[in-house]
Amino acid sequence: MSSETLLSVKNLEVTFNTPKGDVHAVRGVSFDLGRERLGIVGESGSGKSQTGRAILGLTAANGKITADQLQFHDVDLANLTPKQWRKVRGARISMIMQ
């Protein structure tokens, strides 16, 4: 991650365990984001909201997030405690839905 990269997402996957089996909502999403804004565009059901929710630690309890990297500045988003999330979410990183 370069010094100008604020958010680095590498190979993000989100899977939900359902009574009918696993549902893969997000597969292999990767991007680096600097000071610019990112708009994610896609068809309904393509995983846009689940990508944002995974980055913000808001995936439902039956969801499993895996990623090679989920890094925001110097914070490893994949390993935050609930207390640490409260300091980051909203104050330093957020998502605006359409």
Describe the structure.
This protein has one domain. It has helices spanning 48-55, 82-88; strands spanning 7-18, 21-33, 63-66, 69-72, 75-76. Strand 4 and strand 5 (75-76) form a beta hairpin. The chain contains two helices and five strands; from the N terminus they run E-E-H-E-E-E-H. Strands 1, 2, 3, 4 and 5 form a five-stranded antiparallel sheet that branches.
What keywords describe this structure?
98 residues; 5-stranded antiparallel beta sheet; alpha+beta
Could you write a compact summary of the structure shown?
Helices cover 15% and strands 36% of the residues. It has 2 helices and 5 strands, in the order ββαβββα.
Q: Mind sketching the topology for me?
A:
Elements: E1 7-18, E2 21-33, H1 48-55, E3 63-66, E4 69-72, E5 75-76, H2 82-88
Antiparallel strand pairs: 1-2, 1-3, 1-4, 4-5
Largest beta sheet, briefly? 5 strands, antiparallel
Radius of gyration: 13 Å
Low-confidence stretches: none
Query: Shape from CA axes?
Result: globular
Number of strands: 5
- In helices, the fraction of residues equals 10-25%
Q: How many domains, as an integer?
A: 1
Distance between the first and last residues' Cα = 29 Å
Helix-strand topology string:
EEHEEEH
Number of DSSP helical runs: 2
**Pairing-aware structural class of the strands and helices?**
alpha+beta
Instruction: State which percent range the strand residues make up.
Output: 35-45%
Q: If you average the pLDDT, what whole number results?
A: 92
